[in-house]
């Protein structure tokens, strides 16, 4: 089997697995309040790459954890991601009309329902990690998972990154400031995804965990660099969201600061650094290697 076909098979398996977990966790749209539950399901079950859950599964697999034990953490991180996309798309934030090729949540429903759907998805993520039947670990490990996800989601993570992003619109910032912004906005949740997989293996070699967390830092930044590249080179139909929006809104990006060529070189360098950090790990870490390649070569 080629690396490309192995990656495709792995992506499909993870997408199906986390899709089933999300279906189980989300309230049925027949339950009151129906419109809120419809919006939650609309925003979460409408496709997407599921990169973050895949990283939970792949990091856990590298340390010998079976996928069945990781369904809850994988589900939790995707619920946080879905909530963040709803709020990012709101008129007060990025004001986007299109997400994954469909109207954004506030367009499909209304702004108030979208805000509430995001709020409810966020709290559902933490509920999933609280329940031993969904996160089959000791209370101490579940608490550590809750802390990792909370840190990645709050003012020192994703929410803080969004605040920095909004403050940077129309301003000149340097490369170091841009990196700090994206370490928070995009990198924090990607790092948390790998961290959750590591926490599921409490007896793991600390050096292996350190290497996996370095990998997570590298691909978290590489993911954002590639997003910035696609905002320039992609097209709206393929991306499933409005192409060129960052440039039109005066947002600082890697191509705007170091040029398109420089951004591509940075993405490749971060990918190689991520792969180098996995050098001492065996074939169980191959999905992480495939995902590093996918992140910098994707067109969506």
Write up what this structure looks like.
The protein has a single domain, classed as Farnesyl Diphosphate Synthase, CATH 1.10.600. The protein has 14 helices and 2 strands; from the N terminus they run ααααββαααααααααα. α9 crosses α10. It has a two-stranded antiparallel ribbon. β1 and β2 form a beta hairpin. With 300 residues, the chain is mainly alpha-helical. The two termini are 24 Å apart. The longest helix has 28 residues, at 206-233. The model has no long low-confidence stretch (mean pLDDT 93).
Outline of this structure?
By secondary structure, this protein is mainly α.
The figure for the number of domains is 1
Query: How many helices in DSSP terms?
Result: 14
What Rg do the Cα atoms give?
18 Å
> What is the architecture at the second tier of CATH?
Orthogonal Bundle
- CATH topology group: Farnesyl Diphosphate Synthase
Order of helices and strands: HHHHEEHHHHHHHHHH
Q: Which superfamily, in CATH terms, is the homologous superfamily?
A: Farnesyl Diphosphate Synthase
User: Which term fits the overall shape?
Assistant: globular
- Note poorly predicted spans: none
Q: What would CATH call the class?
A: Mainly Alpha
Largest sheet: spatial strand order:
1-2
Work out the strand percent: under 5%
Largest β sheet strand count, sense and barrel closure = 2 strands, antiparallel
CA-CA gap between termini? 24 Å
The tally of beta strands, per DSSP, is: 2
Overall pLDDT score: 93
The structural class is mainly alpha
Helix proportion: over 70%
